[in-house]
Amino acid sequence: MVDHSYADLSLAALYDTLNPWGPGDDFYLDLVMSAESVLDVGCGTGRLLRGARTAGHGGRLMGLEPAAAMLVQARRAAPGIEWVLGDLRSHRWEGYGFDLAVMTGHAFQELLGDEEVRAALTAVRSALSCTGRFVFETRNPTARAWETWTPDRVRRLADGNGRQVRVWHEIQGPPVGDRVTFTETYEGEAWAWPQVCRSTLRFLGPDALRGFLADAGLEVVEQYGDWARGPVTAGSPEIITVAAPRRARRGLR
Question: CA nearest 83: which of 53, 104, 63, 59?
Answer without folding.
Answer: 63
